[in-house]
Write a structure and sequence with these properties.
129 residues; alpha+beta; Jelly Rolls; 3 helices; 34% strand
Length: 129
């Protein structure tokens, strides 16, 4: 997905009334290890750190999707904490799971352009960049 397609997908996501733009400060926890995710975060700016593995996620070049759509109904193996002030779109679980248009947009942002492809297990997050 090129930059223009990314911008179009992000703009389309923002038009859904249940998708929220959220600003977060350093130290804020987005998800806890061992919990089911409440939804999907599309990191627009700033950075996160996955714990306990200390994996950095930086959105400076491209948005990041956390967790991947395929992991939405799985217990999270890692938590996610804001490392540097960040902005993100939050897509509630019910919207990400049941709205086909939103699912297609999230798959595009994850780099999976064919929504007919079966969902395979994936990493704790998906980075497109």
């Amino acid at each position: 997905m090129n930059g223009d397609e990314e911008l179009q997908a992000l703009h389309a996501l923002r038009t859904y009334p249940d998708v929220q733009t959220v600003r977060m400060e350093r130290g804020q926890v987005l998800q806890y290890a061992g919990h089911y995710p409440l939804g999907i975060w599309v990191l627009l700016s700033g950075s996160l750190r996955l714990v306990p593995d200390e994996v950095p996620i930086d959105a400076d070049r491209s948005p990041s999707v956390l967790p991947a759509l395929a992991d939405l109904d799985r217990l999270m193996s890692q938590g996610a904490v804001v490392e540097r002030a960040a902005a993100a779109l939050f897509v509630p679980h019910s919207v990400a799971r049941h709205d086909e248009a939103v699912r297609r947009l999230l798959l595009r942002l994850q780099g999976e352009d064919d929504p007919a492809t079966p969902e395979a297990p994936s990493a704790a997050h998906t980075r497109r960049g």
